[in-house]
């Protein structure tokens, strides 16, 4: 993770975050660094959440195995997270 940079509109945010991603169907997950979205890039009704806990569910496995090929890759796994709205 890179060092946080000050933001005039809120807390300091790191430039990147770790993400467990599905990059290729039928392959293991890839742990990688991806950019943290900037608050100015959010659309109305979007939230930026600092994830404290994320889980793995069967939907992640189904997507990784290619059962839903209409979902574009790469995709960050785990839609069941919990954290703090920043």
Helix content: under 10%
Low-confidence stretches: none
Mean pLDDT: 87
Would you list the SSEs in sequence order as H and E? EEEEEHEE
Q: How many H/I helical runs?
A: 1
Domain Alcohol dehydrogenase-like N-terminal: 44-86
InterPro entries: ADH-like_N, GroES-like_sf
Protein name: Chaperonin 10-like protein
Pfam family, one: ADH_N
Describe the structure using short key phrases.
86 residues, mainly beta, 3-stranded antiparallel β-sheet, 38% strand
3D architecture notes:
- The protein has 86 residues and is mainly beta.
- 8% of the residues lie in helices and 38% in strands.
- The longest helix is centred in the last third of the chain and has 7 residues, at 58-64.
- The protein is elongated.
- It starts with a strand and ends with a strand.
- The mean pLDDT is 87.
What is the gist of this entry?
This protein is mainly beta. It has one helix spanning 58-64; strands spanning 5-7, 10-13, 16-22, 30-35, 49-54, 75-76, 81-85.
